[in-house]
UniProtKB/TrEMBL annotation:
Family indicated by similarity: Belongs to the TRAFAC class TrmE-Era-EngA-EngB-Septin-like GTPase superfamily. AIG1/Toc34/Toc159-like paraseptin GTPase family. IAN subfamily.
Residue ranges the record marks as coiled coil: 285-312, 421-455
Swiss-Prot/TrEMBL keywords: Coiled coil, Nucleotide-binding
Single GO term (MF): GTP binding
Protein name from the UniProt record: AAA+ ATPase domain-containing protein
Organism name: Sinocyclocheilus rhinocerous
Protein origin, superkingdom: Eukaryota
Keyword Ubl conjugation: no
SMART domains (UniProt xref): AAA
Coiled coil listed as a keyword: yes
Length: 515
């Protein structure tokens, strides 16, 4: 039931006593007395709460996603004031957000997510708002991966968030196309959740004049963003205007009252929608993320294994050629071959800082994308204490995490019949048996290469299946290479499947893969 306004005002006066004045005026702006629960730098998010959480109270969790400049921060504060029952005639405005979300303080650089817990005793629901950072910064893909990581670690943490009621895409009502960055980020969020998240994705249009936001809706449609629809099969959206904190001005009184009403009506509808919606659990997401990282690491690793195989094949082919020429006087030929070997080198810091490598297989198991885990059994490529990526699926204790990776190099070596004899342990009597042996080895290598390429293809296919939106950047980075290899090993159908994935992504909008 709605409280009477006098009762609300009484609560507001009590609240003012406990709040911190930000700015005098009409409205007077206050900052709520919040607690910052975790200042633990290793956690990739910060938590700011107001009030004490009561577990008997219904609880909703929403995730906000939007570009810098869309007015996400204001929206969070509108939610809070709506829940506090603030009205325009109260001439006050409360804020839960802090400025550091906009500045590059130590924390906002290391943490990519802020979690607001709003536990108001008088409110019918408790609310958790997960605010992802504005995507105006061009730090690009690595930053977005971090956001995925942060969501994952948030879901694993002690007060973890295991389900989400709504993913809110914050868009300016006046936008007539989504920026590449926005599309990319919305895609990224969709690929974090399972396919079933679409029913919980809703649109929050800010800077609205109250008219039907047809431009912004068309922009969403053109970007092929999947979201919840109403019974008329139209996207579910809510309208807000972002000028609640503008000083009251008599010349604009009518319009200011209207925009206040517009935002609060938007909130009313939004909370009604939240009441009815069924939350989606992050269970699938954790699996998707974990699997995505394993597949990603696997594809990178398989590529270097294919490369190694090809280099060995070249070495054998060269030996065979030489040998055929010298068959006549078979015992004393000498020539040079390029022999592949692995070497540990420093990581290029513009790509990544750390990698998890296997010391037994001498392979890069998680690179790039490996980060803050100090206990290697926690590294995302490990499952049941074993690596899912390296050739021998070694135990995590055989791995190291450092800023070095294995790189395949080649060196010229002298080759003679004696050396080859030794290499094959005296199993070769003459040139003929040598040719036979080399051919067998070539066949083995070709088989190995085919196996590796197919395995990488399977990884991409699995990823397509599990994520709502698998045309994610990382697949596209590998697709051309894989397509080419599938053609080499005579798998035109599989190559075509990959080309179609690429085409689909291209239709969505190819520009933002070039950044």
């Amino acid at each position: 039931g709605k409280k009477s306004h006098t009762e609300t005002s009484r609560n507001i006066n009590n609240l003012i006593k406990k709040s911190i004045l930000i700015k005098d005026g009409n409205p007077v702006q206050y900052h709520l007395q919040t607690r910052t629960d975790n200042l633990n730098q290793s956690e990739p998010y910060r938590k700011i709460s107001f009030g004490e959480r009561d577990n008997n109270n219904p609880h909703k969790t929403i995730l906000l996603v939007g570009e810098t400049g869309t007015g996400k921060t204001t929206l969070i504060n509108v939610m809070i004031n709506y829940m506090l029952g603030v009205q325009r005639e109260d001439k006050v405005w409360f804020e839960i957000t802090d400025d550091q979300s906009d500045q590059t303080s130590v924390h906002s650089q290391s943490s990519s997510i802020t979690v607001y817990g709003f536990y108001l005793q008088e409110s019918p629901i408790h609310l958790t708002i997960i605010d992802t950072p504005g995507y105006g910064d061009t730090r690009g893909v690595e930053k977005d991966k971090e956001i995925a990581e942060s969501l994952l670690s948030l879901s694993k943490s002690a007060e973890g968030i295991h389900e989400i009621d709504a993913v809110c895409l914050v868009i300016k009502a006046t936008q007539n196309r989504l920026s590449d960055r926005q599309i990319y980020i919305f895609d990224a969020v969709q690929s974090l959740f399972g396919r079933d998240i679409a029913d919980n994705i809703i649109l929050l249009f800010t800077h609205s004049d109250g008219m039907h936001p047809k431009n912004a809706l068309r922009a969403v449609e053109e970007a092929k963003i999947k979201c919840a629809v109403n019974d008329k099969n139209q996207p579910v959206f809510f309208l807000f205007n972002n000028c609640q904190t503008d000083a009251a001005d008599e010349d604009f009184q009518t319009i200011q009252e209207q925009s206040w009403k517009l935002s609060f009506r938007g909130m009313e509808f939004f909370f009604q929608f939240l009441e009815k919606i069924k939350p989606k659990t992050l269970k699938m997401t954790q699996d998707v993320l974990q699997q995505r990282k394993q597949l990603e690491a696997n594809i990178s690793n398989l590529q270097s294994r294919v490369h190694m195989t090809e280099l060995k094949e070249n070495e054998l082919k060269k030996t065979l050629e030489q040998d055929r020429k010298k068959v006549k006087d078979n015992k004393n030929f000498e020539f040079e071959v390029e022999v592949p070997y692995k070497e540990k080198v420093d990581i290029d810091h513009s790509v990544a800082k750390m990698a998890t490598c296997c010391t037994v297989c001498e392979e890069n198991c998680h690179y790039p994308g490996c980060w803050w885990v100090s206990d290697l059994s926690w590294c995302s490529v490990m499952k049941d204490n074993h690596c899912k990526v390296c050739t021998n699926k070694c135990h995590y204790t055989k791995h190291v995490k450092e800023s070095k990776i294995y790189k395949i190099q080649t060196k010229k070596e002298k080759m003679t019949f004696e050396i080859l004899m030794k290499k094959y342990d005296g199993k070769i009597r003459d040139s003929e048996s040598l040719v036979k042996k080399l051919k067998e080895e070539l066949q083995e290598l070709e088989k190995e290469k085919i196996k590796l390429v197919i395995e990488a293809y399977d990884c991409v296919e699995t990823l397509e299946k599990i994520a709502l939106n698998a045309d994610s950047l990382f697949i596209l980075q590998h697709i051309d290479y894989l397509t080419e290899k599938l053609k080499e090993i005579n798998e035109p159908d599989k190559a075509e499947t990959l080309e179609n994935i690429k085409k689909r992504a291209g239709e969505k909008n190819m520009e933002h893969w070039d950044t």
